[in-house]
Amino acid sequence: MTDFAKPQEGKRWYVVHAYSGMEKSVQRALQERIDRADMQGQFGRILVPTEEVVEIKGGHKSVTERRFFPGYVLVEMEMTDETWHLVKNTAKVTGFVGGARNRPSPISEREVEKIMSQMQEGVEKPRPKTLFEVGELVRVKDGPFTDFNGSVEEVNYEKSRVRVSVTIFGRSTPVELEFGQVEKI
């Protein structure tokens, strides 16, 4: 168990349901409400689980954030009536996930550990936004084989490369290309 995933003394991790696309806004609003109510002692970290994905637009590589669990925010807190009401009455929060109506269940440390390691992996090795599958048809959009269509033979996510079988002069030829050089058809 990493120290980062382990909850602070007396606190547990809870999953809060928020409007999809508003997770960062909920994170900020919750932090502001906690500070205004002077309840920092009952709360720990507030996380929006994200990973970095590589996207290629117009030949330029850009790294963007993608949420693992759209509509959910992880909150480390002591569960009391006051903390429950503070979170529940935050704008764009629809409630807690799991447990009874007014007594949510915390998630296990193992689940938090898994989410944290996914987040860390996403930062260390950004994933491509488009995922390719063997056998899928693609069109080459850049390089010497531009406008050729082919079938994906192999995908290498470590190197962000794909091997595509294209037909050149009536013969099937494997060509190794970067993800940004092909698109799904």
From TrEMBL:
PROSITE patterns registered for this protein in UniProt: NUSG
Cellular component terms per the entry's GO annotation: cytosol
Keyword presence, Endoplasmic reticulum: no
Positions of the NusG-like N-terminal domain: 10-119
The entry's keywords: Transcription, Transcription antitermination, Transcription regulation, Transcription termination
KOW domain mapped to chain residues: 131-158
Function: Participates in transcription elongation, termination and antitermination.
Protein family (similarity comment): Belongs to the NusG family.
Name the record gives this protein: Transcription termination/antitermination protein NusG
Organism per entry: Pararobbsia alpina
Gene coding for it: nusG
